[in-house]
Design goal:
It contains three helices and eleven strands, in the order αββββββαββββαβ. By secondary structure, the chain is an alpha/beta fold. 17% of the residues lie in helices and 31% in strands. The two termini are 27 Å apart.
Amino acid sequence: MARYVAALGLAALLAPGLIVATNDAAQAREVVGIRDARFEPGTIVIRTGERRLYYVVAPGEAIRYTIAVGKAGKQWRGVKYVEELQVDPAWAPPAEVRRDNPRLPDVIPGGSPRNPMGARVIGLGPGGQYAIHGTNMPNTIGTAASYGCFRMHNQDVIDLYARVQMGTPVVVMP
């Protein structure tokens, strides 16, 4: 916890307003140093093996969030770009999810406690098959639980959503 508080203090000096953490879920994010200098500020880097998402805020510095990643056989790697931003999105189960769960409705409205997309969606493309989104199942954060999307605590996806823009690069690594 002391390291977390020290990181917040450093972040406050370098970039006022960078992080405000007020509850346990929000403590899933912290400012950390990153060794890989090839990523420019504004880039999202996901390390599936760590189950972490990094939002690069300055050279050598990122906000780190704990996330849920794809189940075995559903993980992927590569580069995508933010192509969609939605608040309280509705969710229509993709065909693969529907095959595994045929009782799902055609659409679950945004804001419904049954909606697995949570408070925000950051859609990745091209293709639109994957997204970074909130979740109504916070106990899955830190696990391999999805069909390839990246789940975050709702408070964390709201924070990240406010930082990204259309076209933000997303680099997914093992």
